[in-house]
Amino acid sequence: MMVELNDIEEIIKPISIMMINNDIAVLEEFIDGKTLFDILKNSTNNNIDKKTILLNLVEVVKKVHQRNIYIGDLSLGNIMIENKSKRLRVIDLEYFGYINDEIFEYYKNGTLGFYRKCLTKKMADLFALLKIIYYMFNPQIYFKEVEINFKEVESTNKDAVSLFKLNLEEFQSVNNYDKVLNNINRTLESLIRNDT
Predict the structure, then answer these.
(1) pLDDT for 3-16, tens place per residue?
(2) Average predicted confidence (pLDDT) for the chain
(3) pLDDT at 187 over 60
(4) For labelling alongside 37, which of 92, 104, 112, 147 has CA 20 to 30 A away?
(5) Cα dist. 156→3, 57, 62, 147, 190 in Å?
(6) Which domains does the chain have, with CATH numbers?
(7) pTM for the full predicted model
(8) In whole angstroms, what is the distance from residue 124 CA to residue 144 CA?
C-alpha cells in the first residue's frame, strides 16, 4: 500500500514496518521540521501560513482517498512542516489502510479531539481534517482541550462541525462524503479570507 503513495511527496516515506507487542510500528524517514502542534504552541497566530498549509492538506487527503486509502490518525501532531522548504508532510503511517465501508467502532490509538467513534474510515479522515482546520483558526481552544476530558472535546466537536455548516450525523454516512468535503473547502476559503 505504501508504494501506491510514493508519488505523493507530502506523505512521509517508511523505512521499515514491523510488529511490536502486536501493534504495527513504522520507522519513517527523518524530517527536519516541526509538527503543527509545536508550531501552534510556540508561534503567534499571525505568523503561520495557514492558507498554504491547510489548502495543501485538503489536497493531500483527497489524493490519498482517490487511491482508495485512508490516513487513519490525522492530527496536529502528525503533520509536520519542513524547516527549510516549508513543505507539509504527513507522518505516523501506522493507521493508513485501504478504504472499505468498515466503521471505526473503537479507535485504538487515535488522537483525542481528532476522531469520532462509529465513522467509516474515509469520513473519519474528513472529520479529522475539519478539526485540524478548526484548531488552526482557534488554537486557544485546542490547548485548553489537551488538558480536559472527553465530554468537553465532544462539545467542541459540535461547535467545530457547525462552523462548517454541517452536523455530526452527516459524518455517519460515506454517502455524504462530497457534501462534507465541499463544505470543508467552502468554509476554509471563507476562514482564510477573513483571517487576512
Answers:
(1) 778 788 898 887 77
(2) 80
(3) yes
(4) 104
(5) 37, 22, 25, 14, 20
(6) 33-195 (1.10.510.10)
(7) 0.83
(8) 23
β-pairing verdict for 69-70 and 97-98:
antiparallel
Closest to 136 in 3D by CA, of 88, 85, 67: 88
pLDDT at position 103 over 90: no
Cα 131 to Cα 157: distance, rounded to the nearest angstrom: 8
Distances (CA, A) of 135 to 44, 76, 164: 14, 9, 13
Handedness of CA 62, 105, 117, 74 (dihedral sign): negative
Q: Which three cell numbers stand for residue 51?
A: 492558507
**Region label for 118, one of left (φ > 0), alpha (ψ between -120 and 50) or beta (otherwise):** left
Q: Are 93 and 14 in contact (CB under 8 A)?
A: yes
pLDDT score of 148 more than 60: no
Q: How far is CA 182 from CA 21, 62, 131, 193, in A?
A: 40, 11, 15, 17
The string over 20-31, giving b where at least 16 C-beta atoms fall within 10 Å of a residue's C-beta and e elsewhere, is eeeeeebebeeb
d(CA 168, CA 64): 23
Task: Identify how many contiguous H helices and E strands the chain contains and give both numbers.
Answer: 6, 9
Per-residue pLDDT of 69-83, as tens digits, reads 988 888 898 999 999
Pairing status of strand 14-20 against strand 23-28:
antiparallel
Work out the average pLDDT over 50-71: 93
The values of phi and psi at residue 35, to 5°, are -75, 160
